[in-house]
Amino acid sequence: MxxxxxxxxxxxxxxxxxxxxEKTRRNRRAAILKHIxxxxxxxxxxxxxxxxIASSLKPNNEIFGQLSLIxxxxxxxNYTRGWNALPVSFTNFFWNSSIITVLSVIGNVLSCSxxxxxxxxxxxxxxxxxxxxxxxxxxxxxxxxxxxQYLTFxxxxxxxxxxxxxxxxxxxxxxxxxxLMIQFFRQLPRELDEAAMIDGCSPFKIYxxxxxxxSLPAMTTAAIFSFIWTWEDFLGPLVYLxxxxxxxxxxxxxxFLSQDSVxxxxxxxxxxxxxILPIIIFFVIFQRFIIRGIAMSGMK
Amino acid sequence: xSFQSRLRRSMPGYVFLTPWLIGFFLxxxxxxxxxxxxxxxxxxxxxxPEWIGLENYxxxxxxxxxxxxxxxxxxxxxxxxxPAKLIFALIVAMVLDKGIRAVxxxxxxxxxxxxxxxxxxxxxxxxxxxxxxxxxxxxLRVFGIQGPYWLSDPSYSLYTLVVLAVWxxxxxxxxxxxxxxxxxxxxxxxxxxxxxxxxxxxxxxxVPMLAPVIFFNLVLQMIEAFKSFSGAFIISGGTGAxxxxxxxxTVYLFSEAFSYFRMGYASALGWVLLIIIAVxxxxxxxxxxxxxxxxxxxx
Lengths: 300, 299
Hints:
The structure holds two protein chains of two kinds. Chain A is mostly helical. Helix content of chain A is 75%, strand content 0%.
């Protein structure tokens, strides 16, 4: 073979390789552009939160009119002073929020998984109608039922206690979670229940020993969302709690605003940061569950 | 099957359903009916409710300018924030969809604001960001723009809440992302062979294939937007100030009920909200048959 023929043979191969290289180069350039866009967009998204953290460490005169995120002289005592800035210390508010949140999470997971198990795995007369009604409650805006619920709890003498915030959670009041769990339960193989039934398991045993352990991802998702929503809830505590000693963290934060002498912005931001810290920690740990939960049910 | 055996067969189901059934009657059915009844009364929680027929509704529609103002504010908010939020969500989802490393990180960071969105800390943060000498105006000043008094100027205040809502585009974005992943790639490959432009691919493949997801996001976000409360409540100091420009429907309802204890009137407002949401959802479903086609319907 002469050099000339081998060069002739190589030409199309070289051309193909060149085209391929051109394409990867173009793809890489597109990828770099995308990353630049995404990083810039992420920064814009996260900047307000970073600014809040930065402001929690700044002295008052540095908070306003400044874009910079670096405090000249970090004021760590914004945290200690903010903790005690209100007539009642934040120890109380965090404790109150924790009690309400933990009870709500337990209530939601238990009662909603009960209802979901019935709808997804058991046969009973009237099931279709109840299911339709359950789905309809998803539509009702909370503001419509709020007033009669408030009046009922008022008559029961429950206003100014945690009962109106906790008891409904044990009555499967959040249909979103029922819906989420039904979706998950339906994916589990039916044969499991049938085999267990033949072995003489009661429906309760099947629920407890088979369905629940297999549904840990769904239970975790519901628990996380339940935690976040209860922790952030503002309207409920605003309506039902009037005594500052019973206030939750969101109500306490609002007090910083209603004080006439709002001059301690650094302290207000310090407490704001602490108030969202549990949510951020949960988010970092359970991020995958949360994102899968969204894709599965379309919750907010 | 005899009644008894049917009863025995249904027993376990109803046992498991009991907590929900109690909740359903006590927390949904009864309150809904009670609120309908109360909406025809004058009730201040001290004296017994007094039946006044349609007077609440009549007053609302004929004389209550704050009711009309709150409707205007809420509708403006819904029509501005929902489309903007969905467009942002779709753009970012499409950028994240293909050939990007570290998708998980981006996804998480874009979603974080949504998870914090309802918190009072974020509402307080927003108040300070949009202050006259806040960060937003400092940033604008870098570009030589003198920013307005976002929060005290009624012609701008609503936009701060729209921005707050759009900032939380994370959850529709995640749903779009799942939807984009489900579009068969061979459709795009076929379009490439036909040398279709990116715009053509977007409108001829992506949008129609994504229509059910767009519809789902639209309905969900619309309902959420009609109900939004805490942000407007905190930023307006609970009153809808300045000049009622942040008087969201829910804020007005809350103040009628819990500041003035006009429970009957507030119940009537609640029913109006229920009907508005129902009507808009119905319209969305009704129009959807013209633009949403589900894969399995084509056969």
